[in-house]
Amino acid sequence: MRRGIPDAGYERIRTSRRDFLKAMGAAAGYIGGAGALHAALGASDERRRPNIVVILVDDLGWGDLSCQGAEDMRTPHVDRLMAAGMRMDRFYANCPVCTPTRAALLTGRYPDMVGVPGVIRTHQADSWGYLKEEALLLPQMLKRVGYDTTIVGKWHL
Is 98 marked active-site? Predict the structure, then answer.
């Protein structure tokens, strides 16, 4: 128990966002190699490939989920995801606004390094950059090893 919040069997991992993305890339490469081996042996790698779900929520406080100790809200679906998966809660937002934070999460780099120092908007006069075309994104790496990827919700990158 930490800060009065039960761990409920969650596995805690301390890592940086960059190390997480490096590990995801390595895992994607491993999965791809393992997939080729399973295909050669006649086994389907679909059963062995883990699902990867990344949830990024704007304006969500650390204690706003019941699995994080909130007593005034119930979030059973998120709680179930947390109980069945891996909990990593040592991250921070790279910027106080949404677009650069998304760019950092998806690239593993500082937002300025990929052309997103601020919010990207429709009109150039009011926009703070554009995601560089050469930026390598986590979904691109996952697609290379056979994953299907999608994004739901606000995007504007």
Answer: yes
